[in-house]
Design brief:
The complex is a heterodimer. Chain A starts with a helix and ends with a strand. Chain A has four helices and 36 strands. By secondary structure, chain A is mostly beta strands. The longest helix of chain A is centred in the N-terminal third of the chain and has 11 residues. In chain A, the strands form eight sheets. In chain A, strands 1, 2, 3, 4, 5, 6 and 7 form a seven-stranded mixed sheet that branches. Chain A folds into two domains: about 120 residues, Immunoglobulin-like, CATH 2.60.40.1220; about 350 residues, TolB, C-terminal domain (Neuraminidase). Chain B has 25 helices and one strand. In chain B, α6 packs parallel to α13. The chains are: A mainly beta, B mainly alpha. Chains A and B meet through β10, β18, α3 and α4 of A and α18, α20 and β1 of B.
């Protein structure tokens, strides 16, 4: 195959008027897809050259055969041909030859490679919330789903339908959209829980708890979900390194039994001296991971709050929680842990580590870490971390891919990045969620992609029904389990 | 009717409306302009066209961007008022009657009613624009016959529910049973378009106008009354009623219209709201002394006005000498806390910027912009957001905002200059404003608390004795605190 490359190159050059210069550098493409690993069937990795290049010519060939050639203002690959090429080259590499025209002169860069994994990414797409990455106010907000095999994005629910109601993160049960929940804040606030198309609106605040549940995680069997109750506040920094700090005035942890809408309120998880947050069940449903920190006066000592990674056993018959065990005493080392997420195959646990606090997205130093659940060893995932914040993350249905939020683009606007992980825990270079015209899309959007997750199938949601029910105020009042 | 008479009276209407906005309420024009950011991009057009009424919305935003200059805003609103009146009269003439002069004065009613309605600053220009487009369609739809099969759904999508005016006009004018089907067709196609393409909006919003009014969950009665009056006026004028003394009736009608409009304006233009807006407009244009002059005559008793007047006192070097001459409401009227609306914190953001607190300015401006309830952005606020990012050295973020502003008409040049400047520390340092803000800003990174704002001012002054603004505001804060304690 390689012997044909000079011929193809000559043909490419013939196609381009004027002389072409060759440079040994890699092209400066946006997004940086050079050397990334993608699943077969992912949406095309369209990319842009810097703005002063008015024309681009790209030829992609696969180790296992196949070819795509495109030309235009940016590299815009046809979806069907792209899928054929990536599927044919699963487990092999794609070679990109890129030419760009600037001031009428063509330039060809060194070819680069994109690897196509032989491990599929079976999920339909991703869900996320789009919100302005700001301060205390938002104008429009919405939960969306995106087909990761194409560029199709659909709203699940937007704030235009329920004005005045802020919506929290959409939480599915291990990527299964037939069971999910999200909390709606505001005058008509409640937690919407949908299972197999049946919706329930539950008021999870009781006389014995601080408020409604916020950060939730489903038990794999679907009967229970764990949630933290945390009145969130914000404060602001004066320097030129950071702007906002998000903290909890208090934070407790409860378990909800969907059979009778009762809350398991364990006094060990509702003390005022400690903050409990970010619960997550293991895939066997026997263990609950969560984060715990000593409480300090806030916002005065907000930078003293550091969360450790904890776990406790869980009885899925009674909802009882067992002995509490410290897994990673991060606070002793001057760190703080958030969002533990066990992989669905039970092999790994991914979490965030920052210098302090519960909201890593506003911490530039926040990184992703990976714990081997067989050995208990942890390491920062240097393959995917950046000098900017890496934050919320989730696993794909087969646990061989993961996505995460990152502010690496400009330090503020959050994007979704995807990477794969092999049996030994080695991760590949991540790629940003592809877009039809990536530079235009990411550079002009004023939204952050918040709380992303994979979704096994397309989420089906009756927006009209939801609209009627939101304003009807008919709610199921949660009780405290005796 | 004499053609010259028609032109003369329409011109008088135009002149009156122009004078009204040019000298009476120019602040409302500024408010409209700062609550939107029209972009010359296809994406912007497509985003507007993705909703019912989107073309009227896009067209109105195109026009409102010119409100950046008050004479242009006043001229546009005057032309729209004349256009509506002429279109109403044109539609009436098309009904076939010969002598129509007797009720000619009625053709001014929709334009004058619109003027009254626009006393509510949350009324968007897309509403009169939609009504004008709909009225223009009246004669066309009355003759279109089967073409109405596509005109009606397209019209509903482009101008919104105002399309009901020409549909009803056609049904009533033609008085044919078949035309009644048009109403059913309108309802059916509007419902289908709504369910298929706009289901993320409540049905009430879609069928009464998504972008006719800025505030969500609100529907002023005039939004329904004005189209109904417009239709009634067209049909009444079209009846060709012959009055015995048309000159006398015409004169009487003119007096009644002027009187009615005056009363309507008097009650619909909230004095405090428009005075507060006037302060903001004057401050935006650097006319600080004019604010004090106005406030000396009348000052609304609210924290926003107190903050604006105090800021203008500072700019005139009178903050501590004349502080008690004006309305005060404690330290909350010196610098406002973060308030979730699109106006209250504008002056606070401005003064905190000048004092050397770019991060709080950034917070305030971001929240101001996000508080625009119909989700639009603001050229004014986005410019300041970009500047805060430049001062902090966050050039990637600044570039994002500047590139967006480059697609606008009146912020383009400014944004291009900043885009040229960023990432070049020599150029940024050479900018007198940015270098000053950098020189007076906090040197330490700590958490801000509104209740300790006076201490923060003291910190600013202590670290840079040239920051006399921080010192003067600190003194004023202490005086107001003492006054509060006494009261």
């Amino acid at each position: 195959m390689k012997r044909w490359i000079p011929l193809f190159t000559a043909l490419l050059l013939a196609a381009c008027s004027g002389s072409t210069s060759f440079v040994e550098e890699l092209p400066n493409i946006y997004p940086d897809y050079i050397g990334v690993t993608v699943p077969a069937g992912i949406a095309p990795l369209n990319f842009n050259l810097p703005e002063d290049y008015d024309r681009v010519f790209v030829r992609v060939t696969g180790d296992n055969g196949g070819e795509i050639k495109v030309r235009g203002r940016w590299a815009d690959f046809p979806v069907r041909k792209w899928h054929e090429l990536t599927e044919r080259n699963a487990g092999a590499a794609l070679h990109f030859t890129v030419l760009g025209r600037k001031n009428g002169l063509w330039k060809q860069w060194r070819d680069f490679i994109v690897y196509v994994s032989d491990v599929p990414l079976d999920d339909y797409g991703v869900t996320y919330r789009k919100i302005a990455p700001g301060y205390t106010t938002y104008s429009t907000i919405g939960i969306y789903q995106r087909d990761i095999h194409t560029f199709l994005e659909e709203p699940i629910i937007e704030s235009t339908l329920t004005p005045g109601q802020c919506m929290n993160c959409h939480t599915a049960n291990a990527t299964d959209p037939s069971q999910f929940l999200f909390h709606l804040r505001g005058r008509h606030g409640a937690t919407l829980i949908q299972k197999d198309g049946v919706r329930e609106w539950v008021t999870t605040k009781t006389d014995s708890t601080l408020g409604n549940v916020a950060y939730c995680y489903w038990h794999p069997e679907g009967r229970w979900f764990a949630g933290s109750i945390n009145p969130v506040r914000q404060c602001f920094w004066t320097g030129d390194q950071r702007t906002i700090e998000v903290f909890d005035l208090a934070s407790d942890l409860v378990i909800m039994d969907m059979n009778d809408h009762s809350l398991v309120v364990d006094p060990r998880f509702t003390t005022t001296d400690y903050l409990e947050s970010s619960p997550a069940f293991t895939p066997d449903g026997k263990t609950l991971y969560f984060c715990k920190a000593k409480a300090f006066e806030v916002p005065r000592f907000v930078d003293s709050i550091r969360y450790d990674l904890m776990r406790t056993s869980f009885d899925d018959q009674t909802g009882a929680l067992g002995d509490i065990e410290t897994v990673i005493p991060a606070s002793r080392e001057g760190h703080s842990i958030a969002f533990p997420r066990p992989s669905y195959d039970g092999r790994w646990l991914m979490y965030n580590q920052a210098d302090f606090g519960v909201f890593p997205i506003s911490h530039k130093e926040a990184d992703l870490w990976l714990m081997d659940l067989q050995t208990g060893e942890s390491r920062p995932i240097d393959e995917v971390n950046s000098p900017f914040s890496e934050s919320f993350h989730n696993w794909s249905g087969n646990s061989r891919w993961f996505l995460f939020s990152s502010r690496r683009e400009d330090g503020l606007y959050v994007q979704i990045w995807i990477a794969s992980i092999d049996e030994n825990g080695h991760c590949t270079k991540p790629f940003v969620l592809p877009q039809k015209n990536p530079h235009k899309y990411y550079h002009s959007t004023l939204y952050s992609f918040n709380a992303p997750d994979f979704t096994r199938e397309r989420v089906r949601f009756d927006t009209r029904g939801v609209y009627r029910e939101v304003f009807s105020d008919e709610r199921i009042q949660a009780t405290v389990k005796q | 009717m004499n053609k010259r008479y028609g032109i003369l009276t329409s011109s008088l209407l135009g002149l009156a409306v122009f004078a009204f906005w040019m000298w009476g309420y120019p602040q409302a024009l500024s408010y409209q302009e700062q609550n939107q950011l029209f972009l010359f991009t296809w994406d912007y057009l497509l985003e507007r066209l993705s909703l019912p009424g989107g073309f009227a919305d896009w067209l109105s935003e195109f026009l409102v961007q010119f409100f950046y200059y008050r004479w242009a805003g006043a001229l546009i609103l005057a032309l729209l008022a004349v256009l509506l009146q002429r279109l109403v009269w044109r539609a009436a003439r098309k009904t076939g009657s010969e002598d129509r002069r007797s009720l000619y004065a009625l053709s001014f009613v929709p334009s004058l009613l619109m003027l009254v309605y626009q006393g509510d600053v949350e009324v968007l220009l897309s509403y009169p624009v939609a009504l004008i487009l709909a009225t223009a369609l009246c004669p066309l739809m009355a003759r279109a016959r089967w073409h109405n099969l596509w005109i009606i759904p397209l019209g509903w999508w482009l101008v919104g529910p105002a399309i009901a005016v020409p549909v009803l006009y056609t049904v009533i004018r033609n008085r044919k049973g078949a035309d009644l089907l048009m109403l059913g067709w309108l309802v059916l196609t509007a419902f289908l378009e709504y369910r298929l393409l706009a289901s993320q909006y409540p049905a009430r919003d879609a069928f009464l106008g998504i972008n006719y009014y800025r505030l969500v969950e609100s529907l002023p009665a005039l939004q329904v009354i004005i189209p109904a009056v417009t239709l009634t006026v067209i049909l009444l004028c079209g009846l060709g009623i012959r009055l015995r003394h048309p000159g006398v009736w015409g004169g009487l009608a003119a007096i009644l219209l002027i009187l009615g409009t005056w009363i309507g304006v008097h009650y619909s233009y909230g004095k405090d709201t428009h005075e507060t807006l006037a302060y903001d407009w004057l401050i935006r244009n650097g006319r600080y002394a004019d604010v004090l002059e106005r406030a000396a005559k009348y000052q609304p008793n609210n924290p926003v006005s107190a903050c604006s007047v105090n800021f203008c006192l500072f700019t005139q070097g009178q903050l501590n000498t004349r502080l008690t001459e004006f309305y005060q409401c404690g330290t909350g009227g010196l610098v406002l806390p973060s308030i979730r609306d699109n106006l209250s914190d504008v002056t606070s953001a401005e003064l905190l910027w000048m004092m050397g607190m770019p991060n709080i300015t950034l917070q305030y401006c971001f929240d101001l912009q996000e508080s625009i309830q119909n989700g639009r952005k603001s050229g004014r606020f986005m410019s300041r957001i970009a500047e805060c990012n430049i001062v902090n050295g966050w050039y990637d973020r600044a570039e994002k905002y500047l590139d967006i502003l480059e697609h606008s008409l009146f912020y383009r040049k400014w944004a291009k200059e900043r885009n040229y400047m960023i990432r070049d520390e020599v150029r940024v340092a050479a900018d007198p404003v940015y270098s000053y803000i950098r020189s007076v800003r906090f040197k330490e990174d700590f958490i801000t608390v509104y209740s300790s704002l006076d201490l923060m001012m003291a910190v600013l002054y202590n670290q840079n004795k040239n920051n006399f603004m921080a010192a003067e505001y600190y003194q004023a804060w202490q005086r107001l605190k003492t006054l509060e304690d006494v009261q």
